[in-house]
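FW: tagging you since you asked about this chain on Friday. Here's the raw sequence from the shared folder, copied in full. Didn't touch anything.
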Amino acid sequence: MNSIIWDWNGTLLNDIDLCVDTINVLLDKRKLHLLTPEKYKNVFSFPVRDYYQAIGFNFEKEDFAIPAKEYIDLYNSRVECCSLHHPATEILSHFNSLGFRQFVLSAMENEMLVKTLGHNKILHFFEAVAGLDNHFAVSKIDRGVQLMQEYRLEKNNTFLIGDTIHDFEVADRLGIQCVLIAGGHQSEQRLKQTGARVIPKLETLKDIITI
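HL: got it, structure written out here
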């Protein structure tokens, strides 16, 4: 049976502005250069610890856990203000009607992931939801392996839809097809360097993923 594994942040959830605003609060507090949305998309990466270092955080002066907690507390306090990318609900319904099994694989902490999916009234579309067990957003690969094994997903019939280079890395490690959406957390130019198929918007998925 055909399956889709969805990334959450930036792919279905439009939280780019929130992420930029939140990291800028932390940068301003430390008197570091602030990020524009364009700059953010050119520097954001996984694991996020490396991204923090790239934009000026000094982990000889403070432990990574300190800004990581500051960030997640600020982000979580406002994430329910974020909307879904248009037309995410329609796309999920479309693939549901075609009989696709649908899953979420996210670097968000699992409890918060379930909460935000429920808040956006789309939790019912997914057979399972796989987030991380911490707030450090290191890698989704291990969780992806668990998901594939637990639900016996067929590699040849499974797609991963995401918006970052790490999503491509996950799909490559899992041995499944990958489609990346431009307009998420990384620039289109960076995404194209992976060699994966990069599309401009969610609607395009209807034309390239069929039964």
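FW: The radius of gyration is 17 Å.
HL: agreed, and The beta strands are 3-6, 13-14, 83-84, 101-109, 128-132, 158-162, 177-181, 197-199.
FW: great, closing this out.
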